[in-house]
User: Fold these one by one.
Assistant:
Number 1:
Amino acid sequence: MIADRYTDWQVHAPTIESDIAIANIAQDELGHARLWYDLLEDFGYTEPDLIWERDPDAFRHSTLCELPFAEGDWADAIVRSYLYDEAEHLRLGALEESSSPRIRDRIGKVTSEEDYHREHAENWLRRLAGGDEGRKRVQEAVDRLFPYALGLFEPVDEVEDDIDDLGLRTRPLEDMRAEWVETVTDTLTAIGIDVERPRIEDGRVAEEDLPEHVGRDGDHTEHWRTQFDEITNTYRELERHDATRLMEDPDDE
Amino acid sequence: MDLETVKERAGPREFSPEDDMPEEYRKAATRMIQFHANSEIMGAYLERPFIREAPSVERKLAYSAKVQDELGHGQLLYRAAESLGIKSRDQMLDELANGEGKFLNCFHYPMESWVEVPMIAFFVDGAAMRRQATLRRSSWEPYAHAMDKVCFEEGFHIKHGESILAELASGSKKEQEMVQNAFETWWPRIIQFFGPTDDKSTHHDFAAEVGLKQMSNDGLRQAFLNSYVPKAEEYGLEIPDTPTIEHDEETDTYEIAEDELDWDEFFTVSKNEYEGGKHQINARKEAQEAVAWVRESLDESEAATGGHAPQAAD
């Protein structure tokens, strides 16, 4: 979903060079989505089950990924990708020693591309924060997006305990969230952006520090329905029943 | 170098920024390459919303890559145009935003449905490929060189477009009807892609004399029809009745009743005065203005640090 949002920047970014860079990032994220969907298909699901014919209320992505960009708000794109990519970096790290070999196999490729995304976002953050207008806009984006980004570490439901117990991931969400908060608040503070650490109650982020709609609990923003309708528009219009595969199975690549 | 020498020497990749080219040559080459670069950007602008609409993850991936490639071609071509010393890239991008920059006729029309994707990505790109392949022999070396990369990547785009067309053409009856309707709408525009017959084309003579162009509009249109009429038929598309096209079996060439095409519309489009095209131009301009603050703040920080501002990994 975040890749889908990034594509809104294609042919809309500030320069041709930044346009090509954000397109690259969108494609990397789409490519990673493809790898994970493919893994789910090994359990008997199909792409239509997972996306095209799925009930939009059943999606469990963080609402950070579905918020539309205001026109021209490049600071939002940069802050969002920074917050997201730092979180993804930690979440991927917790899968490197996964008890599932197929998960482990996918990590190497994904991690190397994510390193570039973090570098891209951090460089842009510094560049933008170096000027008055840019810093003001970065601050506004951080104020708005930080609670949504915290939602990236919210549990979907009790399945999170099974994921930890089975060793599918080697670090619980709480633990990763704590590190993420330290890293991003340190970086943002160092470039002159104000950000407060969230209040923690019983190991969880206090409700008032989370957004109204978290997403991972199944509760989405009003924007999600529109995005989902647009994404699935052609599939529905053409009355499709399957999704075209063009590439080799990633497990055979 | 005087014009007579240019005409004498006008072979493939004959001239580079090291040659002292007459202004007339540099202006003609700038006009041609700028048009080409603008077309890449406006084509990408037109197609971009369909990344979201693509009905499979892998189609999205392929489509996003294609749109990115077109931007890359624009970047490459503006550089080749800049190397003539007439206009800077910023100037050319400003002209595009202001509605002064010209671009391909097909990218002035709105695109509303996925079934129109192969009209651009197979037929228009296929037509462009014909022209671009001959431009690898252009006399302006940076242009010809850019065409090597462009043609290489366009080959993949056409395969992507053909694969979408093949899928629609072998799909449900509804899909087949939708794609036929789209084809009927787009076909006359696609034929007009190559412009009017050579005797009506204003810029051709000089561009051909100095080797910028290596093949005439008529020759290109013929080559396109020779390969794309059979391809369209192979996918079950019916060639629309207008304009009348007659196939000469003996010479294996196609004769088009050119007068049946709407040239008033074509020239309105060419002058950036067609409503749909104006909308595209202005919408892109607004999008570019909305991020002007980023370009301004980059310029500021560069000025403040004497060009030593941290570089983004872009």
Number 2:
Amino acid sequence: MFQFILKRLGLAILVAFTVSFISFSLLFLAGDPAAALAGETASGEDIEALRHLYGFDRPMMVQYGDWLFSALRGDFGESYYFKLPVAGLIFDRLSITMTLGVCGIAFALLTAVPLGVAAAIRPNSLIDRIALFLSVAGQALPSFWFGLILVVVFSIKLGWLPPSGTATWRHFIMPTIVLGYYAMPAIMRLTRAGMLEVLSSDYIRTARAKGAPEMRVMFKHALRNAIIPVVSLAAVQMGFMLGGSIVVESIFALHGAGYLAWESIGRNDLPTVQALILIFAMFYIVFTFLADVLNAWLDPRMRSS
Amino acid sequence: MTHSVSLKMTIAALALSVAAGEAMADKASGTLYAGFTKELENVDSYFNSSREGVVMQRAIWDGLIYRDPITNEYKGNLAESWTWVDDTTLEFKLRQGITFHNGEPFNADDVVYTVNFVADESNGVKTQRNVNWMKSAEKIDDYTVRIYLKEKFPAAIEFLSGPVSIYPNEYYAEVGPSGMGLKPVGTGPYKAVEVVPGQHFVLEKNENYHDSPKGQPSIEKVDIRTIPDVNTQIAELFSGSLDLIWQVPADQAQKLEQMGQFTVANESTMRVGYISMDAAGRSSMDPNPFTDVRVRKAVNYAIDRQAIVDNLLKGKSILVNTPCFPSQFGCVQDVTVYDYNPEKAKALLAEAGYPDGFETDLYAYRNRDYAEAVISFLGEVGIKVNLKYMQYSAIRELNMKGEVPFNFSTWGSYSINDASAMVSQFFKLGSLDDARDEGVAADLATADTSTDPATRIEYYTKALQRITDQAYWVPLFSYNTNYVFKTDVDYTPTPDEVLRFTTMSWK
């Protein structure tokens, strides 16, 4: 197990390094940070002066090496746009994104797994149909549209929830639903499919035959096995939520890390984008790793492999 | 496309739900809640280049001079009076008894420190053009100060009434731009009491505001939140937690107006939309039709600008025939005007050897719908145009290398009411100059630096006439801004696109 973890860690570092290098080269090719920095009223000479001041005129490898060396010491540099240390800038916003991501995945799991199980127990029943409808709707509804509908209904018509911002926990309710709903269908379908497969397997028949109570069969025997792929999927979804909640953050004016990433790309704010890409990549790596550990716990067969 | 459809559907949905909505932010609370779309990088006005930054700058700080946005008359603000000692030296008598928000008294030291700090290029003021005409400042006595210019610069007064605000020397020396950005201190009508970057700013009325031409603030408190999505801003307005939003797209403003629940005010801005053409043949396009004046004229004739204004921009937008905004000093309107005439365009194209038109790329960074309208008008006379929709900075970079044959762009002149802020930016052989007309550049050089207004007008006229005769650009129209606010807010927007909290009041 320890060796397995070490191997995974080494791989993770390599992935993070590759991601940072590729993103750095892409950003390097994509645009001129000096022009973005100077703003639209700047003249050609202003831009040239800024380019030299920030060292954008040096070769790419030198700039990358510089960045990597500082990043390894935890210094992500100063944002070109905000003129503030990137680490602090991201830290402030990450807490919003993390809160949203955790709430979103919790919402998705708490609705999708019971629905998936219920749908699998009674396939083609009314509850299965409802679950199917919800998942199709979840896939089809763009989150910006769904978010606005919620705002119209709950903020404007009913006046129950604030439309945007982060001041209280009530501000997070609608964003959580929108973000979680997007991840829900896949989790539910996977739970349903997994449960259906497991329920028709021999050991479930055996468990039932030896007279185990139905609840115990469902949750101890069936769900435990059916949930394994769901854990892996949820980990990926979680990474996606943390890095990809841009639309939701924008609609609900949450000012989290996803929105910061999106805006920073437009502003050519290289240090911020670089650091965010690295952090998002790390999220994926950490969550996949945690999912592996969790799966190994759920399924002893995985521990040996 | 899907986005604009969704906007319309949202508006429709919002319209259906007008009935509800209790007011939280209103007159009774004494706080005016406003929404901004863009996040401000730094409240320190020398270190941001956005419109929102200008709004904050005018509220928190003062300049030596003030320009009345209606009459365009210059009045003393922190300065009581000023005189030109010679062509490159300005002397100011400062107003006495003014204090900064932190209690620091205002005097000549503050002016000297601020000017010397911003004029030093290594301090990295973001928009160099706003400050790089100043060489230095010198204290004569506690309330007399001189500003030395690098060279003759007649627009100095205009710049001093705009982007150049005076900072408290002791405080600024201690905290620098980043400290100033988080805890701004000025002499202005509003004090910044809370700054949460990216989220909101709270301004509070400056009870001790001096007798400034800006007028005395009336609204106690202003809370500005950053809400990137226009639909969310409108939802906040409906739910009662915002009192005022601005820069609302025309179609939404129109619908909001029809509902009758809010005041919708429209005002023109100095931003001019234009199309530049590679007349000098710098791009790799071969053959390059734009080097032929007949083709450039044909392009001018082919676009029905009035139709674009009437159907897309609406509001107080006007047709612009010059590469500058008509209110700017020196932006004479006695120029060649190309009215919509597709037949003439086709004839000119045939004459130039393109009877079946030609194919080219149009670069654009905003208002995709306007660009598409232009493309369809050009299509009607046989010019097949492919749209290259990119980030502003990316196009600008290509343009500086001379690789953009055909460019739909805009220029806001930083609200500076002088033609030099626009035409001279693009026609003085700089890297963005696609015409590269030496005669024009020479005339502009004279006009920009002469201290005699009549001479300036004479040379701007020459330059602008030559530019329009040669049809180097297609000047299109001016932009407008929609302001939407609750009916208990009293506010009249000004044509310079600056939101002024000082002139707002509760009804």
